[in-house]
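2.7 Reproducibility. Because tokenized structures are sensitive to small changes in the input, we list the exact sequence used for Cyanophycinase, including any N-terminal residues retained from the expression construct. No trimming or masking was applied before prediction.
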Amino acid sequence: MTRAFPNIAKCLKNFIARLTAYLKLLFQGNTVDVLPALAGPVLNLGGGGPDVEAAIQWMINQVRGTGRVNVVVLRTYGSDDYDHLIYSMSGVNSVQTLIVSNRQDANRDDIVQKILNADVVFFAGGDQCQYIRSWKDTKLEAAVASVYSRGGAVGGTSAGAMIMSDFVYDACAREDPVETKDALDDPYENITFSYNFFKWQHLQGTVIDTHFDTRKRMGRIMAFIARQIQDGVCQTALGIAVSEETSVVVDKYGKAKVMGRNAAYFVLGDHPPEICKPRTPLTYYDYKIWRVPSGDTFDLNNPPARGYYYRSVKRGRFDADPY
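Resulting structure tokens (single pass, no recycling of outputs):
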């Protein structure tokens, strides 16, 4: 009988190991690479505040076809609280959060490989300046671009959405982000931009802003637009302004749809500003503004020829309520 006890102990140990592995798999998802054929690419721009879960599910559904997808959440600090939310969604094979807070880690082969194996990448909210300083011109950036180029989904919320525009207000020149009054009074003071980060197909010529309605940011996105034209970056610039608890999702054809509780605004500057220079209030006549409520769409490649209204800024002041 004494000889049987080691065998019993060994069997019990194996059983516990298998049970632990099973529970870990059940919690985290199947970490075996699935790499299904993807049906995108698509984008999801979240306006901050409570996430629009339907928009995250939308981008998963858009790219997965009949398969299941692997999701990676990227951030420079914080927790893995997205893992529980996203793993409970339909069509998800696995999800993991990677906290990548410096350029050295953004070039690590093991981190890059996890992103390359993903089908959906989601940028959590945070600090867009930190994102740019830690990730721009790294292997991480190239890996995210690879997910998109093979038909995957890339999304983000708040700062995580702002870094996806062509012209990124990076907030690197000041401790607190600039708000409307200061931006209109001086569109240059401590207002800096980053370029050539993520170059998404349907977001060329855009600048994205978030927390739009709650923080009344129409004036600052107007200043951001005027700066691009004045500085010779482009001849026209489109602002994509997303309210809290709202997302703008973009399909592979460039058709944007607003989802969530509130509206999004598309603000076009299509001519040079009358006055845009340092230490001087902004003057810019006739921005075209489309207010797009939840459920409606906007073609990013061919903005509609109707449905907009005009608003102007003269010596740093609106000519009428811009909302």
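Residues 78 and 99 are 7 Å apart (CA to CA).
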